[in-house]
Amino acid sequence: MSVETSPKPVTWHDWLLAEAPQSRSQARLTRWYANWLALKRNPLAVSGVIIILALILMAVFASWIAGQSPYAQLLTARLEPPSMEHWFGTDELGRDIFARIIYGSRITLLIIFLVSIVVLPVGILIGTLAGYFGGVFDMFLMRITDIFLAFPRLVMALAFAAALGPGIENAVLAISITAWPPYARLARAETMTIRRSDFILATRMQGASALRIIWSHIVPLCLPSVIVRLTLDMAGIILIAAGLGFLGLGAQPPAPEWGLMVSSGRSYLLDQWWVATIPGIAIFVVSFGFNLLGDGLRDVFDPKGL
Amino acid sequence: MSEGPLLTVEDLRVAYRGRSGPVPALRGVSFIVGRERVGIVGESGSGKSTIGLTILRLLPQSALVSAKRLCLLDTDLMAASERAMRSIRGRRISMVLQDPKYSLNPVITVGRQIAESYKVHSGASTREARRRALEMLEAVRIRDPERVFDLYPHEVSGGMGQRVMIAMMLIPEPELLIADEPTSALDVTVQAQLLVLIDELIRRRRMGLILISHNINLVASFCDRVVVLYAGRIMESLKASELALARHPYTQGLLACRPLIDRAQPELPQLTRDPSWLDAPDESRRGTGA
What we know:
Order of helices and strands of chain A: HHHHHHHHHHHH
Strand order of the largest sheet of chain B: 7-8-9-3-10-11
CATH class of chain A: Mainly Alpha
Oligomer: heterodimer
Distance between the termini of chain A: 37 Å
Largest sheet of chain A: none
Strand content of chain A: under 5%
Helix content of chain B: 25-40%
C-alpha cells in the first residue's frame, strides 16, 4: 500500500518530479513541470491561463459555439435585450451579439499573433545589433527608438493607421511600429551585459564573425526576458487594437471586432446598454487574463522575484 | 616546412587611452616563439594577458597598438584585415581562458560548442562536425564523450569544463595555442593532469604554446623557456632549466619570494621594484636561441 514498497515511480507526477532524471527529455519535462507547479500555486496566474485557453478554444471552435453567423441580420429583431434565444441580445442590425463576441476572438488572436511575429524579430535584431556593435551605430539606432518612445503609443498608432488607411493589416502594422522600441531596449541591455562575458571572447578567439555570435550566442540568451515582456504587453496590444477599431481605423464593419462593436453600440448606451457593454467586458476580461498570465510568468522565470 | 620562429614579436607597444593621456600597458616587448613551450610570468597588471589579446588583435577600440613586427610565420598580424584575422583566430592561433565557468556559453551544450568551432573553419557538415567533436572529447580524456556531448556547461566540473575548452580551441588544429592562466581556477591535482594533457596534445600536433601565468614554479617546471615581464617590459628571458641562474634582480626577487617546503622561513622577502629597470636596454634578445 505504501509508496516505499513500490519499486518504481508509478504516477506521472512522480516521474515528472524525479530527483535524478533518466534522460535529457525527462529532465526538460521535469523543469517544465516544476515551472507549471510554480505557476499553479499562484491562483491569479491560473485564472489568466484559463481565460486565455478559453479565448483560444472560442476562436478555434467559433462556428460550433456561436450557433449562428455573426453577420446574419434580422431587422425585425433589432436591439433585443439578452434572452434565452440571444444570450447577449442583438445589436442595431439585429445581429446576435453572442455570435459576434465569439467570432471576434479570432480577430483579437490574429492581431496578437501578427504583432508578436513582427515585433519580436525587429526588436531583437535592432537591440542586439546596437548592443553588440555599440558606438555610433548604437547611438544612431537608439536615437531612433527614442523618437518612437517619445510619443504616446496610442497617438502614434493612430497616426500610422490614419496614414496607412483603415483595415486590420494596417492596424497590425501601426501597432507593430509603435510596439518594437521597448523590445529593442531590452535586447540591447541584455546584449551589453552578455557581450563582455568570457564566452563571447572565447567565441571571438575562434574566429567567429559578429553575426554568428549575435545569432547563435546572444539571441538565445535574450529570448526569455523578451518573451515575458511580450506576454505582459499583450494586454496593451489588445487595448490599442480595440482603440483603433473604436476610432474606425482598425477593423472595418461588418467585422465582429470588439472595439468596433463598442463604437457602434455607444449611441444606444443609455437605452440598450448591452450593445456596447458586452464587447467592452470581453476586451476587459481578455486583457486582464493576459496581464495575470504575464505577471505569473515573470514570477516563475525571474529568480530574483522569489 | 620552414623552421623559422612561429611567432615573432618585436617592439610591441600597447597603451590604453586614459583620462589624462595614454596609459602604457606594454612598453616595447620583443620575443619569439618556435614550436616549443614558452611561459610568460609576471605580477598582476604586468601586461601578461594583454600580450595574448594583442596577438589575436582582440583588444578594445580604446587600445593603441604599435609594433615593429608582429608576425605568425609569414603573416603580418598588424596589417591583416578584420576578415583575415577571423580566419586566423581559432584556425591558426587560439587561446584558452582562465575560467571555464565563464568561457562556455551557458545555454548551449558543450558538444555543440565544440562542433561549431570546427564548422566555422572547415565548413564541414553537422554530422561530420559531431563526429570530430566526439573524437576531440576523447582526445582530451573525457571518459564518456557521447554523454558529455549533450551536457550543458553547468553540468560539468571545472576540470572537465577546461578540457572541453581545450577541445574547442584545438579542434581547428591551430599552430599556436595561447593559454592564459588555464589552470588558475582549478584544484592543484587537476592542474597537473591538465598541464600533462596540454603538453601531450601540443607535442603530437607540433604546435607552439604560450603559457601565461603568475605561478613561476609551474612555468619553470612545465615550459622550455621563461619570459619574465614587469610593468609591460621584459626583464629577462631564459631557459627554464637555467632559471636558478637568473641574473636580473627582479627575477631573483620573484624566485626568492617563493615559499620553500624544505626550509622554514618566518617571513618571505618583499619584492623590490625599481622603475629604472624600465629604461634599461632590452634584455630579451639574450638567450632566445632555441
